[in-house]
Each structure stands twice: as C-alpha cells, then as structure tokens.
Amino acid sequence: MFVKPAILSALAVFIFGIVAAVSASAQVYPTRPVTIVIPFPPGSNTDGVGRLLAQKLSVSLGRPVIVENRPGGAGGTVGAKLVADALPDGHTLLYSSPGPLVVAPAIYKDVGYDPVKNFIPIATTFSIAQMLVVNPAVPVRSIGELVAYAKAKPGKINYASPGYGTQPHLLGEMFKLAAGIEIVHVPYKGPAPAITDLLAGQVQMYFDTVGILLPHIQAGKLRALAVAEESRDPQLPDVPTTVESGFPKLQATYWSGLLAPAGTSVTIVKRLNADINDAMKSKEIEAMLASLSAKPKLGSPDAFAAFMAAETQKWAATVKAGGITAE
Q1: In this structure, are residues 61 and 106 in contact, taking their beta carbons and an 8 Å threshold?
Q2: Which of 36, 200, 305, 327 has an alpha carbon 20 to 30 Å from 61's alpha carbon atom?
Q3: Is there a single domain that holds both residue 109 and residue 166?
Q4: How far apart are CA 182 and CA 159, in angstroms?
Q5: Collapsing DSSP states into helix, strand and coil, what is residue 149?
Q6: Is position 237 within any domain?
Q7: pLDDT higher than 90, residue 41
C-alpha cells in the first residue's frame, strides 16, 4: 500500500508535536499546585513528616504542595486508590506507610488497585524499628522466656495490635508461627487504645514502633524484650535485637515513601526523587525524625521498587502461612 509523502510528513509533524509537548511539560513541571495524599487521618508519624516535607518541596518545586488526608477503606486503601486513578502528571502523589502498599493487598481480595502496576515508586523517606514489649506483670525478661511462658499457658497470652491487618498484627502472627506458640490476637482501633489496655494488663504483649513505646519503657510501665531489626536502638542499648534473641526473620520497620500514578514521566520522578532526598537532609526534618526514633531512608526509585517487592513477598508469605483472611 502506497502512502503519500504528504501524509507521512503530516504524521511525522504530529508525532514530533506530541513528543515535544510531553518533553516540555516535564521540563516546566509543576504547572500548578501539587497534592500529596496521605491515606490516614492527621496525627500519624507519616502525616507529621509528610507535612514538613511538603513545606520543603513547595520551595524546591516553586509551587504550593498541599497535604490531603484521605483515610478510609481497608488499611488506607481509599487514599491509595484515589492516587492510582489520578492523572499521571506528577501533580497528585501518594505518601504511604506499608499498609496500603504491601499489607492490605495481601489480605483483601480487591483493594481497587495493584501496588506494582498502578504506581511508580519515587523515594522512601524514613523507617522506624518495631519492637516487642510486655506488661511488667508478665514474668519474662527475654523472648526465650516469653516463648517458654506462652507454651506453658497455651491460649492464655493476648497480644494487641492497632488493627486487623496492620504490621504489628502480622508481626504477632509471624512470632506465633516462628515460636510455635498459641497466642490470641486482640485488634484495636489504633495504637492508643491498644497501649491503654496493655498498660492496664488487659493484654500481655504488643509490637509497635520504638518511638511510640519508648516513653512507657523509660517510665518502667512496659518491659522491652527485643527490637525487631538487625541492630540495637541507640536509645535502648541494653535491649537485644530479635536476631540476637534467636529469631532472625522476625524483623520489621514502619516506613513511608512517596509514589506517583503509573505512567508518570521518568523525568518528573527523578526530579522529585532528588528534591525529596535533599529535603530529608534538612535540619528540621532530621530533628523530627530524631523525635520519632526514626532513621532517614534515602535512595533511588529503583531501590524503593526493590524494597517494596521484598516487603510484599515477606508479608504475603506471613498472611498465607497464618491463614489471615479479610474480616
């Protein structure tokens, strides 16, 4: 079939125009205010860091960066779906912790998006180690002693979580499977009521971040058994890690990162990654992270993608092994 030169020429001009437009839009990004969606209510660690990060990005991007809290759904899935369905132009971003990205999709059949197919990772920002604590009335001072105590009282040890399908819940299940013990999960609506009942002795053990639990440990109201990471926490130098305690796979951190809708320009993603990494080095954000017992977690979009893939595999395996299903 013969195509007239004039048609080919017009087609070439059309294609060139599209490429030029895409290139130009990436170069002038952003063209309007940028919205960072946080899929949880105000007040979380992610929310606090996200708001300070938005201030820094407003300066580097030269446009207002607005934080919008969109809680709801199973583990924050409403806000995540909102961003998954947004235009892939870099003006709507997701700032999320593990729940909507690597936990909820493993538990719930249809969250309305695929974390791998519908998002492009931009940058991780920080991580906080999880740790295991018990009420001081429990007569144990190590994970080994807790395992022996639980085996002697099967089904009598209750462990709290801030909600079904949360990371502390899955950590409790991971511990239960690894230790071969029978402990009972008691879900709450957030960490505050869980800790209240833990302090009162209504539940006996709990996993949560060092930052949340540290004041209660220092006050002698909770006993720390182990930090669920490879290295000890400098604020709790006498508390061993789960690795040292004989449970090398019992590790988890609460982390947060920014993502964009799939199809977002690589140029925009790289720009945002560089600006985020610079912002996370600021004195203001470093001070906030220190107050949360958090560590900066900087890196490339590819590093974030690989980390998220590993997290997805780990928690999906825990969900399957523990027979955890949607409630």
Answers
A1: no
A2: 305
A3: no
A4: 11
A5: helix
A6: no
A7: no
